[in-house]
Design brief:
By secondary structure, the chain is α/β, with parallel strands linked by helices. The chain has 11 helices and 13 strands. Strands 1, 2, 3, 4, 6, 7, 8, 9, 12 and 13 form a 10-stranded mixed sheet that branches.
Length: 302
Amino acid sequence: MNRLMVAAALALFCCHCSNKPVVYHSDKLDRGTIQISVDESFKPVIDAQIKVFESSFPDAHIIAHYKPEAECLKDLLVDSIRMVIVTRQLQSSEEQRLKDALSFIPVQGRIAYDAVAVIVNKQSKDSILEVSDVKSLLNGTGTLKLRPVLDGLTATSTVRYALDSILKGQELGKTVTAATSSQGVIDYVAGNPDAVGFVGVSWIGNPEDSVHVRLQKKVTIASLRCKICDSSVYVKPNQVNIATLQYPLVRGLHYILKENYEGLGSGFANFLIYERGQLIFRRAYLWPARMQFEVRSAGINE
């Protein structure tokens, strides 16, 4: 028996002796094919990230599945899903559950800051709101004659944000309407003068994106009272107001990587957290979480 046959026999013997199967990974940092699950609220910006990443690494292919946040988190237990991108980190109990299932805890980190934009119909007179107005609209106690619409009534990150961060545990009111997606929210508000919608700002907040500019001709992005200003200032969810937390409905964007070796998931995560990926978040008018950018006051002298 030659050395090659001996080595093969030993490998086969070790496989039978081990309690866990031997897994051979074919992907590398810059090549291969993986599937990821992404919160549907961030489809525009993650599509842009994948496009640039794949153009830089032609042998790499990222297949993204866009779905409600809760479904993305469930996908951490799906073998074929390598990474999820959502608006929150794992809780301790979730980390332990994954450690028990995977024998390791996934790597996670914040990659950007986003905002929930409040949008109203072009005919609406109510485009300047207090956060208390938003809360009363969502719990059904408000006096404003507006019908709130979310991208679902359960499972989505926008719904979770509304329940946790705006309503502080209160239930949604009976007047809240559910659309099937962020695009559905925008379409509903555009077609109903008494509607008020809630969407991730990456769907509508980029003034340099022709698609966003067209959408802003259909609906109005409402201004909310500044969260930290001394005076009564009302602000929109633009980049500087997200960066300085003046806009009151800011949330984080996080990746959770289910990979304990240097594979394509790690390569894509590195892309998101370093300069090129962070600049794409900045260009999409989110606020990068991993790079330092200065916010300066400027004046115009006539």
